[in-house]
Structures are given as structure tokens and as C-alpha cells.
């Protein structure tokens, strides 16, 4: 089978092609929903009879894990999987004399973090968070909608440059003299 991300991209492309005809797009969306529900019901029945150790073994496979997440059948919560992902990047952060604290996962799916040690306020923190932490979290918990790092999300102060107001026109000259 092709890479999961390639398949997801192709599905999105096909649905986008149907977007021009609302009636066809609605039917395609319904078909996809029905198939997902059908497979989810079947997967739920299978996982319901598996011993916990076997379910853990299946959840270790990336493709199966994504299906379990899609149908809310994964044996570990989003918070647990994010926590494990952060444990995996802690050695990398430790090499930069810093760490990260998991503050929580919001109802909106956004993970909130705080950098610790010298990572806090470090100019390269944005790169560290972007590449190491975000990737690890999104791989472990693809349902996460975003990652917010307290203190890193500060908006830069913008200098607003406005056009200069027009100069007032001087009164017309009368006899070469201004009034």
C-alpha cells in the first residue's frame, strides 16, 4: 500500500475535484462518511475482543494507530501520547540545556507547552519547537490541531507607517502677496 500521507493527499485531491458540483460533492462526502462509520464499527468490534497487550501491539503500527485515533479507539489518550512524544524529544532539548513542560491539551485540540531552562527566551527556541517538538507531537497525536508555546507566541511590535497627510495648499497669491 502507498504511504498513508500520499493516500490522504489523493483523497483530498479527488474530493476537491468534485467541489465544483455541490450535489456530487455532498454525495461523495456522505459516501466517505458511511464507509468510515462502517469500518469504524468493524474495528471497534475487533478491538473490543482483543486482550490489552494485543491492542497495544497493534497501536504501535502507525497506520493502525491512525485508524484507532480516527475512531476514538486508541488505547492511549491524546494527552498520554503527547506526553510520550515529549519524553522522546527531552534528550534533544537537554542537549540545548532546556526542557519543555506540557501544560495541557485544550478542547480545541491545541497543545500548550512552556519552555524551561535556557530554551526559554532563546532566539533558536522557535526553530527547536517547530522542528523537534511539533513534529514529535503531530506524529504521536495527528488529531492535535496546533501547538502553542507560552512566551513564544508574543506578537512582534509593528511600526505602523502611515502616509503623510497632504500639505495644506497656500491661499492663492493676490498681487504677489500672500494674505
Q: What does it look like?
A:
The protein has 179 residues and is mainly alpha-helical. The chain is built from 6 helices and 3 strands. The chain has a 3-stranded mixed beta sheet with strand order 1-2-3, covered by helices on one side. Helix 5 (78-94) runs antiparallel to helix 6 (125-140). It starts with a helix and ends in a 29-residue tail after the last strand.
Q: List unreliable stretches of 5+ residues.
A: 154-160
What is the ordering of alpha helices and beta strands? HHHHHEEHE
State the share of residues found in helices, binned by percent.
Answer: 40-55%
**Main beta-sheet strand count, sense and barrel state:** 3 strands, mixed
**Gyration radius, in Å:** 27 Å
Mean pLDDT: 79
Structural category: mainly alpha
Q: What amount of the residues lies in strands? A: 5-15%
What is the end-to-end distance?
87 Å
Side by side, the strands of the main sheet go: 1-2-3
- The backbone outline, from C-alpha atoms, is globular
The total count of helices amounts to 6
List how many beta strands DSSP finds: 3
What's the topology here?
Blueprint: H1 4-18, H2 22-49, H3 52-59, H4 62-70, H5 78-94, E1 98-105, E2 110-117, H6 125-140, E3 146-150
Parallel strand pairs: 2-3
Antiparallel strand pairs: 1-2
Helix pairs in contact: 5-6
Amino acid at each position: 500500500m502507498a504511504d498513508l500521507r500520499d493516500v490522504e493527499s489523493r483523497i483530498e485531491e479527488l474530493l476537491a475535484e468534485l467541489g465544483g458540483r455541490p450535489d456530487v460533492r455532498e454525495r461523495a462526502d456522505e459516501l466517505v462518511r458511511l464507509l468510515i462509520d462502517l469500518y469504524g464499527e468493524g474495528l471497534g468490534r475487533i478491538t473490543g475482543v482483543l486482550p490489552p497487550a494485543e491492542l497495544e501491539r497493534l497501536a504501535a503500527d502507525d497506520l493502525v494507530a491512525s485508524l484507532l485515533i480516527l475512531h476514538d479507539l486508541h488505547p492511549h489518550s491524546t494527552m498520554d501520547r503527547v506526553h510520550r512524544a515529549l519524553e522522546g524529544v527531552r534528550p534533544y532539548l537537554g542537549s540545548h540545556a532546556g526542557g519543555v513542560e506540557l501544560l495541557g491539551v485544550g478542547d480545541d485540540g491545541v497543545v500548550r507547552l512552556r519552555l524551561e531552562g535556557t530554551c526559554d527566551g532563546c532566539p533558536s527556541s522557535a526553530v527547536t519547537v517547530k522542528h523537534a517538538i511539533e513534529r514529535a507531537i503531530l506524529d504521536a497525536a495527528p488529531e492535535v490541531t496546533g501547538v502553542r508555546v507560552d512566551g513564544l507566541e508574543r506578537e512582534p511590535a509593528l511600526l505602523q507607517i502611515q502616509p503623510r497627510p497632504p500639505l495644506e495648499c497656500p491661499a492663492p497669491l493676490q498681487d504677489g502677496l500672500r494674505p
